[in-house]
Amino acid sequence: MTTSTKAAPALNVDATRNQLLQLGCAHAAEQLDALLSAAVKKTTAPHAFLEQVLGAELAGREERRIKTSLRLSGLPTGQTLANFDFAFQPAIERSRVETLATSGWVKSCETVLLQGPPGVGKTHLAVALGAKAIEQGFSAQFFRFDELLTLLKRDSHLPPSKLRRKKYLSTALLIIDELGFETMDREEASLFFRLITYRYERGAILITTNKSIRDWTELLAGDEVLAAAILDRLLHHATLINIKGRSYRLRELDEALRTKQ
Q1: What gap in Å lies between CA 37 and CA 198, rounded to an integer?
Q2: CA-based diameter of the chain, in Å?
Q3: Contact 206/171 with Cβ under 8 angstroms?
Q4: Which of 203, 219, 225, 258 has its CA 20 to 30 A from that of 131?
Q5: By three-state DSSP, how is residue 224 classified?
Q6: What are the DSSP calls for 105-166, one per residue?
Q7: Residue 162 and residue 216: Cα distance in Å, rounded?
Q8: How far apart are CA 85 and CA 246, in angstroms?
């Protein structure tokens, strides 16, 4: 007596792809053909194939989240820890920066102060750490201080219920770049104090500045009490990195001049 084996039903890939699209799984749908081809060659078990399909969708969504968050953050592009020249700035402890790159300080709503003269890489590090925070699931917003001050003045009349929705207050990490080039008047110093007070232990702050701590009173309209109150909050849970090195921009200028000779 002969036995017949029932042929497996043909797989309608197009129908499966359409179902994935209807479920909002565009990334898995896009990779379905490649995943199926690899699964057939390797005789992948059904449950393992399902994990691969779901993994492709999750990876695609995460990549899209990071791209969207980076775009909305205002962070400049191209400045990463991978292309930061630690050898040019030996005063910076690479291990400290790598610890900050884990973003534990963002989760704990702490402060990072990057202090030093112009051109030593403060903004580069700030941007790189902001990008790392976004990669790890935190929201971030980048502002030059003059831009942020304009927003603070514009929103000064808003009630707390509306003010709390502003990006500079609601984001997990607020990056303030180039603090210290202009001395604040009393109104500006008061607005800055309100910002720091609201974010204290509610959200992380990263500040780049060319001013040392002892110069902040002069920066804040000469108000010693206000400066003490701001620094008390900023430094309570803070990492201070003081960069004493050469300027990257001057190095690039020197290299360009030597090339022309």
Answers
A1: 55
A2: 103
A3: no
A4: 219
A5: helix
A6: HHHTT-EEEEE-STTSSHHHHHHHHHHHHHHTT--EEEEEHHHHHHHHHHTTTS-HHHHTTS
A7: 30
A8: 12
Residue 166's CB is within 10 A of a number of other CB atoms, namely: 17
Q: What is the phi/psi pair of residue 41, to 5°?
A: -65, -35
> In the structure encoding, which two tokens stand for residue 128, read together?
């790189």
What six digits make up the tokens of 6? 């029932």
Q: How many Å apart are CA 94 and CA 121, to the nearest integer?
A: 13
Residues sharing a CB contact under 8 Å with residue 6, sequence separation 6 or more, in sequence order: none
Q: Domains in the chain, please, with CATH?
A: 13-68 (no CATH), 86-251 (3.40.50.300)
Tokens of 252: 């690039």
HSE toward the beta carbon, residue 207, CA cutoff 13 A? 27
Which residue is listed with tokens 């910002």? 195
DSSP code for 58: H
Q: What is the pLDDT along the chain (261 residues), one digit of tens a residue?
A: 455 555 555 567 889 899 998 989 999 889 899 998 888 888 889 899 889 989 998 989 999 999 999 999 999 999 999 999 998 888 899 999 999 999 999 999 999 999 999 889 999 999 999 999 999 999 999 999 999 999 999 999 999 889 999 999 999 999 999 999 999 999 999 999 999 999 999 999 999 999 999 999 999 999 999 999 999 999 999 999 999 877 665 555 545 545 666
Compute the chain's Rg from CA coordinates.
26
Structure tokens at 131: 């990008």
Sign of the CA dihedral 247, 250, 251, 252?
Answer: positive
